[in-house]
Amino acid sequence: MITKSTLLHLRLPFSVFLLPIFLFALSVDVPEDWPRTFLVFFIIHFLLYPASNGYNSYFDKDEGSIGGLEKPPLVSKDLYWVALLLDLLAILLGLLINWQFALMLLIYGLVSKAYSHPSVRLKKHATASWFIAGFFQGCFTWLMAYMSIHDVEINEVWVLQYVLPALLSSLMLWGSYPMTQIYQHEEDVRRGDITLSYKLGVIGTFHFTAIVFAFSAIGFFLYYRYFFSLTQAFIYLIFLLPIISYFFYWYWQVRHEKSEVNYKSTMRLNMISGLSLNVFFLLMLLWAL
Fold first, then answer.
1. Alpha carbon distance 203, 181 (integer Å)
2. 186: exposed, middle or buried (C-beta count within 10 Å: 0-12, 13-18, 19+)?
3. Interatomic CA distance for residues 4 and 15, integer angstroms
4. What sign does the CA torsion over 83, 170, 233, 265 have?
5. What integer pLDDT is reported at residue 1 of this predicted model?
6. Distance between CA atoms of 236 and 217, rounded to whole angstroms?
7. For the packed helices 141-150 and 19-28, what is the interaxial angle rounded to 10 degrees?
8. Within a 13 Å sphere around the CA of 119, how many CA atoms are in the beta-carbon half?
9. Would the pTM of this model clear 0.90, i.e. be above it?
10. Helix (H, G, I), strand (E, B) or coil at 70
11. Which pLDDT score, from 0 to 100, does residue 151 have?
């Protein structure tokens, strides 16, 4: 019997914040096999991500707010086994797609475990954890989704048309990732986890995110301008407006009152970002149909 605590720590709704990476990969070329596409979507968002969330929660044992849970309940041993079971199911179902998808699922799962497991605990290393999390949740996942949806080999995607959007996915996450840690400094330090956001400080995290996200926005604009159309490039900028507006509004609040650095504001930025980007990439998919 799976406990309510375990179900909550799987944080299924939180997967929506990583959905833009999948939709981005989906929107680049129209899929020919939609049942295959939906299976890939299910494996990544309902098995792989929840398994990673649950495994990390089990070892973190957070007492304060975490992504998707304002008041996380105490973890139980079944969370550990459910996370491993979901990982196994993801790999087995991944074999129905092809062996390379299953292998990439295995690699992602191992890296996510290294992020929080006490024997490795990548989370203790600010720069390494920031780079690895952004690379695997961005570039690696984009390639994994694209290759599995379209049934292409890895040697077929080493061209600018596919490498660039994969790298842009990571650049976008490298900019936003420290913002997800900005309200957790005290708890992270108490646990011995030195995050990049902690090293940058609250205001430094805002500045860092603004700079990296600016480069990301320029990269996406040029990508859509070069490989698609100028119209689509400008539509991308329009969908960034709600994200940018709230980001600078929150920044102004924090400059005047440090208590504004909290879980609710962070989740609000995540929600606005996730919604804006998901709608944009869905629009690009419809554009291509």
1. 13
2. exposed
3. 18
4. positive
5. 62
6. 9
7. 40
8. 4
9. yes
10. coil
11. 92
Q: Which pLDDT belongs to residue 62?
A: 73
Which DSSP string corresponds to 252-285?
A: HHHHH-GGG-SHHHHHHHHHHHHHHHHHHHHHHH
What are residue 66's DSSP bridge partners?
69
Give the length of the chain: 289
∠ CA 288-137-70, nearest 5°, is 110
Q: What is the rounded radius of gyration, in angstroms, for the C-alpha atoms of the chain?
A: 19
- Single-letter amino acid, residue 177: Y
Give average pLDDT by consecutive 10-residue segment, the chain, 289 residues. 85 88 96 96 97 91 73 88 97 97 97 89 90 97 97 92 97 95 86 89 97 97 97 98 97 93 94 97 95
* Interacting residues of 201 by C-beta distance below 8 A, sequence separation 6+: none
The per-residue pLDDT for 79 is 93
Give residue 67's identity as a one-letter amino acid code: G
Q: How many CB atoms lie within 10 A of CB 245?
A: 11
Question: Tokens 């940018």 belong to which residue?
Answer: 244
Q: Locate tokens 């998808």: which residue?
A: 101
- Alpha helices (H) along the chain: 4-10, 19-28, 34-43, 49-60, 77-97, 99-116, 126-134, 141-150, 160-176, 185-191, 196-200, 202-227, 230-256, 263-288
Measured distance CA(226)–CA(254) in Å, rounded: 38
The one-letter amino acid code at 174 reads W
